[in-house]
Design brief:
homodimer; about 450 residues; FAD/NAD(P)-binding domain; Polyamine Oxidase, Chain A, domain 2; Guanine Nucleotide Dissociation Inhibitor, domain 1; 3 domains; 8-stranded mixed beta sheet; Flavin_amine_oxidase (chains A, B)
Chain lengths: ~450, ~450
């Protein structure tokens, strides 16, 4: 049993935990980071392509408004490059594939105006919600009692708007429209600056840039700086607090510290034994903040043949297993790479297929959209985040009606000497890489304020 | 480290686990039950009154339709007695207390007919849902996408009906109307025989009888039969499966068995380390089947002074902390005992009060209803089930929209050699004591069917 004594012990070496450790060290505190996996990065995870380049098995995009992650990338000396997005995009409507130029609107005027009025209504609601405290105030309480679908049904008249918002929720919140409260979505928009377009878009928006070498490099670079202070393969099993400090016990390692930052999601925190027990409110919150259900799939081809046909690789097909695909070849690779996401109930159904059936499903869909050449991928790289013991899902928490308003305050409220970090605790860009980075820094600021008292 | 080798190891000595162990032994199998607490009974827990008699800190009532628990009570030689329910009942409407005779309807004709048509509509839906598989079929899928409140708003016109159903959900599902899907409620009704009155009523219904000596006696009697096969203070930490069997590791005890029955709720199963990991679908189900949030409070007086005023002790006040109270004096006690329930968001708010404020809140409410004598209780016995580390809430699971239909099948689907029991896995009287008892027997039947193959 390794024994350590430090100022701050951090649970989890994802972006949140490593940012916390880095911030604590910058303040002159000694730190130790305990990580269950044999790697750092959490829900950022580079997967190797056949040519040795990396694609992102998890979180990958950063946008210009995401100040924390952009600053960190610069500080770490990493480079970014623009997401590939040229050529026409495709929409699968029933069995029919339709093609649209980048500047062409796939909707009729009536549909577009239906979508626009609903987006404006959402943004007006977002302006009334403080992303620091979505649970406060009348508006928050009211819109937490209805599902997003309730609002959608009464707000939009067209099937196109329904399709748009179904895709919006699947793509950004990894859920179905009836699973979450309207407040959950509105709080997310408020925390992203209040503009839907900044969440859905590429250039000038949240999908603008990628990290050269893959997003896990951010975590790898922080871990390199932290050196021996990061211990891998050390799942934390217990956190005991007393008047003087915290004892954190992991497999093979025990650390004593003045404070702990727990930087893993609520669904993982539930597995840690706390002494004394966490407050009942916090426990209820953890029980109800489930991880969403996502499988991320890269389909790798010898070359990006769709580009030759003037296609961007973007395919929207809300009813299919892969509701959304993009061209995700890294800048330095000559391979063709399509990335797709399987989410929510579709992920549960997809997972029950055999490997052969899953492959068939994915390929059939891509052949329909991109033609016969899509039938013969070199490789399919499937990352099922729900099957990852140390994630239990990705990349959002699922907040059903009533959860934010009755239990939301427990998302960041410290429990004794235990402070909470993690992308879901962010107040800007919740459940984005940027949110993870800022949450780690915020947890350390909380500790500094206490230590000064 | 104690080592055991048995046919079946059972996790949890609540009613489900003990019933499973009893059923397995009756089939000639050797069993071991591992229980985290230093007592058996799970969510049945006798609390001592000042005169040494027992009241039930948790589940307490059984009804004539609950065949499994009734049979068990008889087999164990325990006695029952009718729930006290004579005299007038009270309703708090705003600050006004209204009194009603048992056979008097508190609603106007219009209100009564609004409630009745909604009850009939619920029962018609329940007739379409198979409680074995609520996730199957069109009706189930559709009514799982809306909250109970959505349905209520479109089905009922009167505030009285809203109050009735708010109380119905708080009392039976321990939740607010916007927190769960309509399917969750309809499945519960279907599993209770399809008749709302059989759930809400006393005589001839689910609240008809109590156990002499308190409901925990059922578990205590089963544990006595099982003798050394029940190990207390042994929280199970890990379950490892291989081709030949299961190894279950608890603090201080390790057991090897052919099969395991896990008879604790999903929120507790989440804390156990499974090797290999449970399927992603099961894991998602566990994340989303949170325990509901309940505090059960007994207020103990020298005598049941309300009876002298011709009052039953029943008080319905949906807006107050104690939404529902009853006279809960055990048959053999001369004390006056009022039991009340604080549920859902009201429990979260109540818990944030100081002990003094909580006492004030409870007493003020009882004084308003029952008069000045209610101001001086001998004792207040508060059981906060959410604060119980080995329960994490009571007595229901909270199934938000989409959960039953997308993940419900995982509620009982065995994972290798691990079978599931627990009141929430029942197909009749879900989350009742009866459901706990039948679930344990059903899990053992599954194992017998496998063993015969």
């Amino acid at each position: 049993m390794q024994q350590h004594t430090v100022d701050v012990v951090v649970v989890g070496a994802g972006l949140a935990g490593l940012s916390a450790a880095r911030a604590a060290r910058a303040k002159g505190m000694s730190v130790l980071v305990l990580e269950a996996r044999d790697r750092v990065g959490g829900k950022t995870w580079n997967r190797e392509l056949p040519d040795g380049r990396a694609v992102e098995g998890g979180g990958q995009w950063i946008g210009p408004d995401q100040l924390h992650v952009n600053a960190l990338v610069r500080e770490l000396g990493l480079e970014t490059y623009p997401t590939f997005m040229s050529g026409d995009s495709m929409r699968l409507v029933g069995d029919e594939v339709r093609r649209f130029a980048q500047d062409e609107d796939p909707w009729t005027d009536e549909e577009r105006s239906d979508i626009n009025q609903a987006v404006a209504a959402l943004e007006r609601l977002a302006a009334k919600i403080d992303p620091q405290t979505p649970w406060k105030g009348r508006t928050g309480e009211e819109i937490d009692k209805i599902t997003f679908e309730n609002w959608l049904t009464t707000t939009c008249a067209t099937a196109a708007a329904r399709e748009f918002f179904t895709g919006f929720l699947a793509g950004i919140w990894a859920c179905d429209v009836w699973e979450v409260s309207l407040l959950h979505i509105v709080a997310g928009i408020a925390a992203a600056g209040g503009r839907v377009e900044r969440m859905t878009g590429v250039e000038g928006a949240a999908q603008q840039d990628r990290i050269v070498g893959g997003s896990q490099r951010i975590a790898l670079a922080m871990a390199r700086e932290l050196g021996d202070a990061v211990v891998l393969g050390a799942p934390v099993r217990a956190v005991a607090q007393d008047a003087d400090g915290v004892t954190v016990s992991a497999d093979g390692v025990e650390a004593r510290a003045a404070y702990a930052v727990v930087a893993v999601p609520p669904a993982l925190t539930s597995r840690i034994r706390f002494t004394p027990a966490l407050s009942p409110g916090r426990d209820q919150f953890m029980q109800r903040a489930a991880m969403t259900n996502t499988i991320k799939i890269h389909v790798v081809y010898e070359r990006p043949f769709w580009r030759e046909q003037g296609l961007s690789g973007e395919l929207r097909s809300p009813g299919s297993a892969l509701a959304l695909t993009f061209d995700n070849a890294p800048r330095d690779s000559d391979l063709g790479v399509i990335v797709g996401f399987v989410e929510a109930a579709r992920a549960t159904a997809f997972r029950r297929l055999t490997e052969f059936e899953r492959r068939r499903t994915v390929i059939d869909q891509l052949v329909l959209a991109f033609g016969a050449e899509a039938a013969a991928p070199l490789e399919i790289i499937e990352v099922d985040w729900t099957a990852e013991t140390w994630s239990r899902g990705a990349h959002q928490i699922l907040m059903a009606p009533g959860t934010w308003s009755s239990l939301g305050r427990h998302i960041r409220e410290p429990e004794g000497r235990v402070h909470w970090a993690g992308a879901e605790t962010a107040t800007a860009w919740i459940c984005y890489m940027d949110g993870a980075v800022s949450s780690g820094k915020r947890a350390v600021e909380e500790i500094c304020r206490r230590a000064r008292r």
